[in-house]
Amino acid sequence: DRRLLQTLRDKPAISGDGVEVRLQANIELPEDAAVATANGAAGIGLYRTEFLYMNRKGLPTEEEQYQAYSRVVSAVRGPITIRTLDLGADKQVDSGQRQGPTPNNPALGLRAIRLCLKEPELFRVQMRALLRASAHGQVRIMLPMISSLSELRQAKALMATCRAELIREGRVVADRIPVGAMIEVPAAAISSSLLAREVDFFSIGTNDLIQYTLAIDRVDDEVNYLYDPLHPAVLRLIHMTIEAGHKAGIEVSMCGEMAGDACYTRLLLGLGLTDFSMHPANVLEVKRAVREAQVGELRRRVADIMQAASLDDFASLLAAL
Ligand code: PEP
Ligand code: MG
């Protein structure tokens, strides 16, 4: 089967009825970029930069980050979506790098964009490195855990300040760097039509979106039986986000695990998603599902399912999709 899948590597990700789909890869280390390309990914949809900060002493300097980002950017043809630091909760750095009180509830605490806005110096070092790396390819910057317009605006203001600083120093920065928000907090999904006016793209982070929507800790084994990507509340938030993004004319991608599970490909295509980012190992399987799908028909069927009155209908109709 693996060999059969390999024959799809250089074939386009296009559905049976001609809808073009973009399948990108999620990476965690610069060296993963080569694996993504080898698996036929059309670019990097999520580069999780926190791995540069983890399992080490001290924080990475601007120069070190600039080298790492430039390496990825130069190695990949096509756009690279680099996510700003998503530390906290399930992604911790060695103690000693950062001090602060231990939160009672880390997933609801100071993590990701919240931490970066609270500690602007931490954010500034990364932002300068990212902007400098933009000189070497198609960098897109993605902000994790956005829950309000205010966070988005603060992050963009900081980015503008860093850009002005770098230009003054005579550094090269790309003219236009698309900025996107991860939609992974229910508040962001619910207000996606407002956020869509101020970003260039959305990327749905289902790992956290499911955690926060269903109030189940994604790293707590006692409750993982409740972790359900098909819960109607989750699907409604995903649907809402895709519609709001498309209505505003921006791209909507999905980079949570759900995007890389071929069991959900038909459903997601039916919900209107055409942009997926996943672990490189899943690209070919998802590509096969895309190539076998009739997207027009799936959209009609999923629209009916989304209208289903009872939650039971919802589950059984999805099972038959
Ligand atoms: C997500 O939450 O779905 C996501 C892609 O981000 P992470 O898994 O790194 O939190
Ligand atoms: Mg997340």
Mean pLDDT: 93
- Could you say which structural class the secondary elements and strand pairing correspond to? alpha/beta
Unreliable segments of 5+ consecutive residues? none
Gap between N and C termini:
24 Å
The gyration radius over C-alpha positions equals 20 Å
Helix amount: 40-55%
Total helical segments: 14
* Cofactors and ligands: phosphoenolpyruvate, magnesium ion
Instruction: Please count the beta strands (DSSP E, at least 2 residues each).
Output: 8
| Percent of sequence in beta strands | 5-15%
**Major sheet summary line:** 8 strands, parallel
Order of helices and strands: HEHEHEHHEHEHHEHHEHEHHH
Spatial order of the strands in the main sheet?
Answer: 7-6-5-4-3-2-1-8
What is the general shape? Answer: globular
Binding site for phosphoenolpyruvate: 48, 83, 207-208, 218
Protein name: Phosphoenolpyruvate-protein phosphotransferase
Active site: 255 (proton donor)
GO molecular function: kinase activity; metal ion binding; phosphoenolpyruvate-protein phosphotransferase activity
What does this structure look like?
- By secondary structure, this protein is of the alpha/beta class.
- Helix content is 43%, strand content 12%.
- It has 14 helices and 8 strands.
- It has helices at residues 2-6, 32-38, 62-75, 112-118, 120-133, 149-168, 186-190, 192-195, 206-214, 232-247, 265-270, 283-292, 295-307, 311-319, and strands at residues 22-27, 44-48, 80-83, 139-143, 179-183, 201-204, 251-254, 275-278.
- An 8-stranded parallel beta sheet has the order 7-6-5-4-3-2-1-8.
- It is globular, with a radius of gyration of 20 Å.
- The model has no long low-confidence stretch (mean pLDDT 93).
- Bound molecules: phosphoenolpyruvate and magnesium ion.
- It comes from Panacagrimonas perspica.
